[in-house]
Amino acid sequence: MTKFAKAHPDMDFRLMVKKAYDYAMADVPAIKTRDIDSSRISYFSDHFTRQLKAASMVQDYLGLNPKDSRRIEWGGATGGQCIQAGWETVASGRSDVCLVAGFETMSRVETWKGNEFIALASDTNFDYPVGGFYTGYYALMVQRHIYKFLRKTRFAGIKDEKMAQEMATREAMRIMAMVSVKNHMNATANPYSQYPNKLTVDDVLKSEMISYPINRQSICTMSDGAAVLLLASEDVAFKYTDKPVLIKGVGCGTDTMRLADRPHGEVPRFPWEKKSDYENLDYPGVHSFRAGRAAALEAYKHAGIKDPKKELSFVELHDAYASSEIQTYEDIGLCKYGEGYDFVESGQPFLKEIDYKLDLKNKGIIPVNPSGGLIACGHPVGATGIMQGVFAFWELQNSIKKHFGNSTLQIKDAKRGLIHSHAGTGSSVTVSILEAVKHD
């Protein structure tokens, strides 16, 4: 992958993809361009490139004509969906080798205009005219999450409803700041990240408020960047490397574009959950992401996962906001609904080896976003989900030191990782399970 950056003024989207492609090909010298049967190329918005059919121009630039190619677009989950599209192409037998590539050049427009383009991925008849930008949507959703869970547990004894919600919100902001501290600190060891930073909780809380209760240091940013993966059938993969990584399971979920259309019903449960866990929970409403739960259920079933906290070595999830990272812990079963804030404070999603200057009593049970996530790495949308795949691939190959120049983020004996890509206000989500394998 390329470094994710505020801008790459010296490269257009084709050259960014070519840089990432050349790096990947050099890492597997036995494979040549002629060996690639097809490509799946992802980018979110034609507006940023000012170019329709930009994927075809990438196909041209990489010298892959006249082979099969598709452009993939699925909002914020574009990169994750692109990986699954490549997986399907190989799994179907149509291709032995498929190149998965993604990019975005978001620096070509002013920030306000970029936010408008992104907001066009919400319902432009209903949601967009009354809210507009995504930070507002996510602020609304986390306020509901705080009300449903933190307000009704830690502040249940306070009768003044307004005061109780305000106290719960401030508590949630402190815990969200811990997520931001974690991700920025992890990114200090990732040379591809956009915003590596050693922050304190106070630093995060004092940053500019964007949409209450979400402030600047708890939000990802628009970025330029590209990432690629090479996918191959099992027999072919072992011709090129003795350390391939298996895509063990895939899952995909959807929900209504319009927030007001999200129903209340029974929680789809993991096998380790009981109906009584959620008897009084109005689900999903806008406090949780049903699409994320559906994607995780399918991926775990496909991969044979019975206990993700024990069977996964790490998780790379779509933390466009620190708030949505906490909500997603619950969606993918790292903890039950309502336990996300406790999960952070316990230290479970932090890396054991890094000193975050926080009191974490149960650190490192299941590291989440060891790369730094979107908050610290950046979010060039079409590349983001593929970046997660690249990071997971290197982690499972035990080659972080080779690619990063240091082994700080290398998880010892990493055997299985989860990558999670999320779009819109949770309208579409992918989850993929990757597993380290060795040649017998």
What is the topological layout?
Elements: H1 13-27, E1 38-42, H2 46-49, H3 54-61, E2 68-72, H4 78-91, E3 97-105, H5 111-119, H6 127-130, H7 134-153, H8 161-187, H9 201-206, E4 209-211, E5 214-215, E6 224-232, H10 234-240, E7 245-254, E8 264-265, E9 283-284, H11 290-303, H12 308-311, E10 314-316, H13 322-331, H14 340-346, H15 373-377, H16 381-396, H17 400-404, E11 416-423, E12 428-436
Helix pairs in contact: 1-3, 4-16, 7-8, 8-13, 13-14
Please characterize this protein's 3D structure:
- With 440 residues, this protein is an alpha/beta fold.
- The chain contains 17 helices and twelve strands.
- A four-stranded mixed beta sheet has the order 2-1-3-6, with helices on both faces. A four-stranded mixed beta sheet has the order 7-12-11-10. It has a two-stranded antiparallel ribbon with strand order 4-5.
- The model has no long low-confidence stretch (mean pLDDT 95).
Describe the structure concisely for a colleague.
The chain is 40% helix and 15% strand.
Task: Output the keywords.
single chain; 440 residues; alpha/beta; Peroxisomal Thiolase, Chain A, domain 1; four-stranded mixed β-sheet; 17 helices; 12 strands; 40% helix; globular
